[in-house]
Amino acid sequence: MNIVLKTEFTDLDLAARGKVRDIYDLGDKLLIVTTDRISAFDVILPTGIPQKGYVLTQLSKFWFEQTKSIVKNHLITTDVNEMPEECRQYSDILNGRSMLVKKADPFPVECVVRGYITGSGWKDYLRTGKVCGIKLPGNLKESQKLEPPIFTPATKAEIGDHDENISFDKMIEIVGKDNAEKLKELTISIYEFARDLALKKGIIIADTKLEFGVKNGDIILIDEVLTPDSSRFWYEREYEVGKPQNSMDKQFVRNYLETLDWDKRAPGPELPQDVVNKTSEKYMEILNIFNK
């Protein structure tokens, strides 16, 4: 499978190009193409990760199917043969890395749930005793499980900007009280379901972020679901409270970038081949575990 960093489909209407996805407008539907681009610290890096778009698409397909009893979602098909004819001519690129989805009106917030204290949440806690404004017990250790999981919404940033954590009250201002409460409930329900399923496969899902939209008056799950780009996956067999964990996600890339003299502004640095290969292996590993 070739590395795809950017798509240019002359017969299709490009609606948006995100950090990872190219989105084409097909009228009442969208074609989402997941490229092999990778971003870190909100900067798109110049180096692609082999198989990344495939992994993100196939994992999202898996989780859309698994969670459809909790909430409807926007997925129509990942089979190029079932897509409109104007898409099928690009099947050599679309195979395995594309989704035909229903159009929805997205909520302008990211729904983040944290089941373990790690990453920026751990740094926040060390400074303030809180995570995104939520007061937590004073004796927590790094990577400790949070009971119950906490909901920490954020505003969705434009490319090059950082997502901004917001309070639940601020979320209510943005989307309304009923929507905010429903989104929180759905996010935690999906996380707890996925967390329990993953544990049976020897994987801890430390946290994840989800996106939702409205279609015909119903809240539906959109974008991607429980992928290494949107979640932290740890090996249960290696889990040990009080230290950082070995992750199967793009934390590996972030850790490498932290060793460089880089100001975390565009343009990002090229990744060395060993980091590229290892990252690709980690992405494929998590897909293979869930596909068993």
TrEMBL record:
It is an enzyme of class 6 (ligase). One of its GO terms (biological process) is 'de novo' IMP biosynthetic process. The keyword ATP-binding applies. It catalyses: 5-amino-1-(5-phospho-D-ribosyl)imidazole-4-carboxylate + L-aspartate + ATP = (2S)-2-[5-amino-1-(5-phospho-beta-D-ribosyl)imidazole-4-carboxamido]succinate + ADP + phosphate + 2 H(+). It comes from the Bacteria. Its EC number is 6.3.2.6. The keyword Ligase applies. HAMAP family: SAICAR_synth. Belongs to the SAICAR synthetase family. This is Phosphoribosylaminoimidazole-succinocarboxamide synthase. It comes from Flexistipes sinusarabici (strain ATCC 49648 / DSM 4947 / MAS 10). The gene is purC.
